[in-house]
Amino acid sequence: MPQFRPSILALALAAAGIGASVAPWQLHAAEADTPETDPPAEQVAEPATEQAGYDEEEIERIEVTGYSRSLIDSLDAKRYGDTVSEQLSADDLGALPDVSMADALTRLPGISAVRTGGQAAEINIRGMSGGFVFSTLNGREQVSTSGSRSIEFDQYPSELITSAAVYKSPKASLIEGGVAGTVELATASPLAADKTHNFVANVRGMYNDRADEVEGADEFGSRLSFSYQGKFLDETLGLALGYARLDQPSVATQFIGLHYNDSKDVDGLADDMDGPEENPGNEYISEGFEIQHLGGVETRNGYMGAIEWAPNDRFVLKADAFLSRFDSEAFARGYRVKLGGPNVAVSNPVLDGNAVIGGNFTRTSNSYTRVEIVNDDNRDFDEVDSYGINADWQVTDNLTVNADVSFSSAKSDFRNGLLWANVAEDATVANPVFDQNVSINYLLNGLNLPDVGFSQADAFSDINRVMVSKYGIYPYVNEDEVTAYRLDFNYALDNDFLSSVEFGVRYSDREYSNDRSVFEYGNDGAFSTTEPPLRLTEDMVNVVDWKGDFGYFPSYLAIDLNKALDAWFPGGVPQPVQTWGNADGVLDSQGYTTNYSWSVLQSGEVYEKILAAYLMLNIDAEIGSVPVTGNIGIRAVETDQSATLLENVGGDPALGAQFIVDEIGIVNGLYAPTIKGEKYTDYLPSLNLNFRITDDSQIRFAAARVMSRPPINRLAGDASASVNDDGEINGSSTNNPFLKPFYADQYDISYEYYLPDGAIVAALFYKNIDSFIDTIAIENFDFKGNGFNVPDFIVDPVSGEQVETTNGTYTTAVNNAEGGYIRGLELAYTQVFTGLPGAWSGFGLNASYSYTESEVESQTDLGGESIPQALPGLSENVATATLFYSYAGFDARVSARYRDDFVSEQVAVNEQVVNFDGETVVDFQTSYQINDHFGVLFQVNNLTDEPTQSYFGNESRTGTLQYFGREYFLGVTYAL
C-alpha cells in the first residue's frame, strides 16, 4: 500500500475532537482547495479505495469548521503562497469572532495594534506605524477616514470579511505603497462557497463593567450580523449579501499629563547650567493635566454585496460593494488643570532631573493658573465606500486577461465642541468676578494616578460658584477618494524554468480635501465683559462623584450641554464658519475678535495621479533536486502630486494677489491662490524565491525596493512667505506638496516546517530606510527658485527708496531626517496535541513572537530636555498566543497579545508623540454548537482590564493613564 504523508487537515480533525478514520486521499484533497495555489502534483494521490481496503460507503465524511478550519486555511495559504506573508481566513462569512479587522489582524506574527478608546484601530507591522502600511480590499487601494494614508481597520467589520493577507515581501504585481507591508482584505466570492445556499446570523448582547463609574455612560450594547451566499442557474450566478451592526458603549476614565512647554527657576539655583539651553538654571514645567470621564456610543453599520457571473469555465464577471458607516458621539467631563507657566509661584517643588513633577502652584497676576470644569462634546461621522467591477477572461489555454475598475471614498466629519466653566468668587451677583485665589498641589506617581489637591475643590460642585465662560466648536471635515483602472495579463509558458509571465498597467486618480471652520464665544481664562459668562441653574447640572481608582478626586458639575447652550444662545448657537477673523479687535457679525486665518489657510485640496506598469516572471524550476518557485519582476511608477495653497504676497496684484472673501464676508487681499507640486518616477524591483527542501520544509528568500508615500494630509499646501521691512524673505509650512515617498531596501529569509498537525516558522528581516519626514529650518532658501511669488524689491516705508529682497529662512517638512535600518526575528508555532487520548486531543496552541530593533531615532522635547525617541510604532518584543480546545460541539479559547514599550501619539492629544508602556491584552471566548443550526457564545474582551499608560521620556513624567473596562458578549448564532 502506498505511504502518504499526513496532511495538516489532521490539525482540524484533532481540534474538532474527531477520532474516526479518514482516507488518505481525503486529506490531500482538502489541501488542494487552498486560496492561493494548489499543492505540488506529486503530493496528491489518486483515490485507491480497493487497494487501501476502504469501502466507500463506510467512509465518514467530515466537515471541519470554526477556528480550527480557519487555522488550516491560513497555514495552507501561507505554505503555497509566492511571497513572505501571513494569512487569516474564516471558514464561513461572519465566522471571525473579532469586533473588527484591527483585532483580527493582531493575531498574526509581527503585527500589533494601537488602542484608541480601548479598541484596536491602527495596526503596526514589524515595528512600523500605520502610515507605512498599504491596504487593499479585493485587491483595490483603500482610502481612509484618518485624514492620512493610515487605514482605520475598526471601520471594517470582521463579519463581512472572509480572508486577510499581510504581505511582508512585495511582488511586482502588487500595488506599491507599503514599506512595512500590504494588508489585503477580501469579501465573499459567492461562486467559491462550498454550499449552494448559506445563511449565517449572529446576535450578541454586550456589557462594559466600568460604565457604572461614568455618569451618563451606557452599560449595554449589541452586535448583530446577517450574511447570505447563494449559487443559481447551475452555479453560474452567485450572490453574496452581508450586514453587520455594532452598537457599543464608549467608556473610559483617564488622567492625561500635558507636555513640558515652559521653564522656571523653581529651586533658586540660577547658576545651575543643567536647565534649558535657552534658559540655563531653569527647570521644565508642564502645561498641566486633565482628569476626565469619557462616555458615549459608537455605532457601526457595515454593508457588503457581490454578484458573480461565470457563464463558462473561461470567463468570470464580478461586481462588489462594501460600505461602512461609523458614527461616534462622545462626551468628556471633568477638569482641565492649567499650572500657569513661568510666572506661576511654585513652592516645595519635586524634581525629576530638571523637570518639575510635583509641588504647590499658586496663581499670580501674570500667570494663567486655573482649574477649568470641562464638558466637551465630540461627534465623528465616518463613511467608507468601496465599489469595483472585475472581469477575468481566459482567452486561450495560455493567456488570461483581468480588467478591474474601482472607486474608493472616505469622509470624516469630526465636530469638537468644547464647553469651559470656571470658578467665580460669587456667581449669584450681578457682575460676577473670576476667582483669582487658585492653588494647585500635585505629585505625579509615574504609571499610577497622581496625588492632587485644589484650593477650590469644594467650589467645583457648587452651582453658586461655577459659571460657563466659553464655548467653542471646531469642525474638521476631510474627504478622500480614488478612482482606479487596472489591466493585467498572464501568459503561461512551456518552460523548464518559467511557468508564466505577468504584465499589466494601473492608473489611479486621487483627490483629498480638508476643511476647517470655527465658532468661539467667551473666554476660557477669565470672564469676558463683552461675552459674559452664563449663570447655571439646577436643571442644567448634576453633581458627579468619581468612583473606583479615581474615587479620591473632588466631585464636579456635569453640565447639560443642550440646556446650557439654549439659555446662553436663545436664538440658537451660531454655526462654525471658515473665516479670516479679525486681528484688530473689531467685532464681526458673529462676535469674532481673533485672527482665525488658520481655518482658511489649513483648508484645501491635494491631487495625486499615478501611472504604474509592471513585468513579472513566475518561476517553477529545479536546482539540483530542489524544487524552486517564486517570481522576479519590476514595477515602474510615475507620480504626479500637487496641492492648492495660498501664498502671502503682501497684496501685490502683480504677484497674483486676490481679494478672498470668507464665509461671513470678511475680505483679505494679501494672498495669491496657486497650485504647486512635483512629478517623479520610481523603479521597484522585487524577487521572491521558495526552495522546497523536503515535502515538509521550505526556505523563502525575498528582496525588494519598496516605497510608502507621505501621509496625504502632509502634502497639503499651507506654505506662506512674507517680506520684512529689511527686505528679508521668510516663510514656513507645516506640510509640503514637494514631499517624496519613504524608500527602503528590504530582505527576508524564512524557514517553514510543516508538522502533521501544525507548523513551525522562523524568519529574519532587514529594512534599510532612506529617510523620514522632519520639520527643519532652511537658511538662505531660494524662494523664487522654488516657485514662490516674491518681489525682487520692496519700497522702504520711511525713505521711499527701493530695497532689494534677500532670501531668509524657510521652515518646512522635508524628507531629510536620517534613515537607518529596521531588523528583526519572527517565530511562529501552531500545534494540535493529537497524541493525547480521546477528548484531550481537542487541545491546540497557536503562538508567535517577534523581536524588532532599529537605529532610527527622533528627538522629542515634550518631557522637557531634548532626548532621543524610538521609531513610532516599534515595540522590540511582540508576542501572541491562543490556547484553544474543541470537542463535541464545544469550543473555547483564550488569546493574549503582548507588546512592550512603543512610541505613538498620546490619546486625545494631537501631535504629542509619547512613550507608551508595554501592555498585555487578554480575550476569552467559548461556544457550544447545540445542533447543525444553533450555537451559543460567550466572549470577554480585555479580560484583565488592561489600561493604556504613557509617559514623556521616562516613566516619572506621566502622560496618559486610561482605563476602559472589560467587555462581555453573550449571543446566539444561526446557520442554514
Automatic annotation (TrEMBL):
It comes from the Bacteria. It is found in: Cell outer membrane. Gene3D superfamilies: TonB-dependent receptor, beta-barrel domain, TonB-dependent receptor, plug domain. InterPro entries: Beta-barrel_TonB (IPR000531), Beta-barrel_TonB_sf (IPR036942), Plug_dom (IPR012910), Plug_dom_sf (IPR037066), TonB_rcpt_bac (IPR010104). The keyword Ribosomal protein does not apply. Residues 86-181 form the TonB-dependent receptor plug domain. The keyword Membrane applies. Residues 32-54 are annotated as: Disordered. Transmembrane segments: none annotated. SUPFAM superfamilies: Porins. Residues 1-29 form the signal peptide. One of its GO terms (cellular component) is cell outer membrane. Keywords: Cell outer membrane, Membrane, Receptor, Signal, TonB box. Pfam families: Plug (PF07715), TonB_dep_Rec_b-barrel (PF00593). Its main location: membrane. Residues 475-943 form the TonB-dependent receptor-like beta-barrel domain. Belongs to the TonB-dependent receptor family. PANTHER family: PLUG DOMAIN-CONTAINING PROTEIN, TONB-DEPENDENT RECEPTOR-LIKE BETA-BARREL DOMAIN-CONTAINING PROTEIN. This is TonB-dependent receptor. The lineage of its organism: Bacteria, Pseudomonadati, Pseudomonadota, Gammaproteobacteria, Alteromonadales.
